[in-house]
Amino acid sequence: MKKRVKFAAGKQKEFFEYLKLDSNLTWRELANRLNVNKSTLSKAYMFGMCDVPYTVFKNILKIVDENEKEILEKYSAIVVEEKVVIGRKVLGEQKKRVSAISVVYKNGKLNLDTSRITFSRYDKEKNVKLPTKLTPELAEEIGMHYGDGFLSEKRYEYRLKGNPYNEKAYYLDYIRPLYRKLYNLDVSLKDFKTSYGFELKSKAIWEFKTKVIGIRPGNKVNLFVPESIKVNDVAILSSFLRGLFDTDGCISFKSKYGYNKYYPVIELTLISTKVIQEASNMLKMLGFDPKISPAGNYQRISLNGISQFKRYEELIGWSSPKNLNKVNEWKVKYPQLIKGYGECGLTVMTSDCGSLGEGSTPSFRPASSFKKEYASRKYAGAEE
């Protein structure tokens, strides 16, 4: 268990003022000697925003050539286990409010017309079925398509491939059963040179994706989110984003205020500027505050902080084991920060300003497993 040094009120500032004076070094020089961030040293540690890691404290004693016991007594400090020490600044992160949900899309049509679809001999032999309604499950699969998928322009080919090192369980235990449920198709998963997933050649599925859903085949640079997915239904939008972020996004926990990997950041990086902008618009409707920034030839969406992390978990969730494992490890490490889950002031408003009320939570799933039932809550303006 890691340790930290906890000072009496006002004493931590005195200790770092002494360090600065006695060492005769600049903050930059001290930071380099201690192997910590300059801002963390001169702000977070200096002004008591968090307690000081014990290893940093020990290195400071070497710089000033002081005895540990004497310094602890002089500045009324004690050494405690890190588990029970979370600074006020850190806890304050989760008090930031997220916005109310307000979906502005007018379209509420969820039924899909598949009457024009042509079934090839392969499709008939495999008994391929096509969805006739836009469900959260289908919306998640469409999100996966925009992340890891590729639809050829001429050969009726579709492929979905992910990382062979940390996504096999996701493909085996979640994606393959999902395709069986949606399309009555057992996809053949295998290792490729640099990826893991499947390739298929189905005229019915290709036409369904292009003619019914409205996905543009070919180069992903020119992709855009089709109108069919832009519906006044929170569960549909959340599921689409889950599939998208699970395949081409990531979650990480950054060190901040001197605490190791506690600050959550959820990101999505795509080459299509249009998809990034449209995904950002959806996130804003769901109450998030997405930040868009360039990432080389790509564009990145970032959701920063504990409040947005909580809203994401409540509303969108994860189906990918690699992401769920990261989240669970974080919860074990910082149990204090998961207190108050579900208290983000979740308010849902549709385009005609209907509301579920302050603090209420929509009854569709927060974590993803398509085997669980979706709630049947109807949103104003949505049609069957």
Account of the protein in words:
The chain is α+β, with helices and mostly antiparallel strands. It has 14 helices and 13 strands. Among the domains are: 3-85, lambda repressor-like DNA-binding domains (434 Repressor (Amino-terminal Domain), Orthogonal Bundle), CATH 1.10.260.40; 121-217, Endonuclease I-creI (Roll), CATH 3.10.28. It has helices at residues 11-23, 27-34, 38-45, 54-64, 68-74, 88-93, 121-126, 136-148, 168-183, 203-213, 234-248, 273-285, 306-315, 321-333, and strands at 3-7, 52-53, 77-81, 101-102, 149-151, 157-162, 190-191, 196-201, 249-256, 259-270, 291-295, 298-304, 348-349. A hairpin with a 2-residue loop joins strand 9 and strand 10. The longest helix is centred in the middle third of the chain and has 16 residues, at 168-183. The model is unreliable at 340-384 (pLDDT under 50).
Q: Concise description?
A:
By secondary structure, the protein is α+β, with helices and mostly antiparallel strands. The chain has 14 helices and 13 strands.
Write the layout of secondary structure elements.
Elements: E1 3-7, H1 11-23, H2 27-34, H3 38-45, E2 52-53, H4 54-64, H5 68-74, E3 77-81, H6 88-93, E4 101-102, H7 121-126, H8 136-148, E5 149-151, E6 157-162, H9 168-183, E7 190-191, E8 196-201, H10 203-213, H11 234-248, E9 249-256, E10 259-270, H12 273-285, E11 291-295, E12 298-304, H13 306-315, H14 321-333, E13 348-349
Helix pairs in contact: 8-11
